[in-house]
Amino acid sequence: MRETLVLNASFEPLATVTLRRAVVLVLQDKAVVEHAHPGLRVRAADIDLPLPRVIRLCRYVRVPFRRRAPWSRRGVLVRDQHRCGYCGRRATTVDHVVPRSRGGGDTWLNTVASCAEDNHRKADRTPEQAGMRLLKAPFEPTPSDALLLALGAAERDALPEWLAVPA
Ligand SMILES: [Zn+2]
After folding, report:
1. Looking at the 3D structure of the chain, how many domains does it have?
2. Taking the complete model, does pTM exceed 0.90, yes or no?
3. Distance between CA atoms of 124 and 138, rounded to whole angstroms?
4. 8-37 pLDDT, tens per residue?
5. Which intervals hold domain HNH nuclease (predicted)?
6. Comparing C-alpha atoms, which of 112, 131, 111 is closest to residue 121?
7. Domain limits at 36?
């Protein structure tokens, strides 16, 4: 099922909806298409729309509560753009900065993308103990970033540049 990203009127990512729901919002003049699949259109009786990838609500919606971004290994790799937090090379694993055996948790601030070699070398030690330095501190993605992270890689790569996940 194709998902469409919904932006608030302020351009802040809000949610993802099914393509069908996105088309309904546009047809009801509640949203406009900000970014469409190139060359694909929704055609029905008297409808002819570009297939929306990103829509933006016409009216600003107040969001009283934003769910925090749920941690995931995949999310950490995406957040760090598959670059090792210790050497900058391609990362395929997730390292716990404070090892789990020492009480380190599965949290955004305690995990970084890591290449297999560095992960193996660091083993069950903190970076200080292993004599390794993080190139930059891990951070917690905002709920908006998390939404973008939750999109599939192909969908994310197709987003317009101004919506890209910050490095
Ligand atoms: Zn590395």
Report:
1. 2
2. no
3. 19
4. 898 888 888 888 889 989 999 999 999 998
5. 71-120
6. 131
7. 3-64
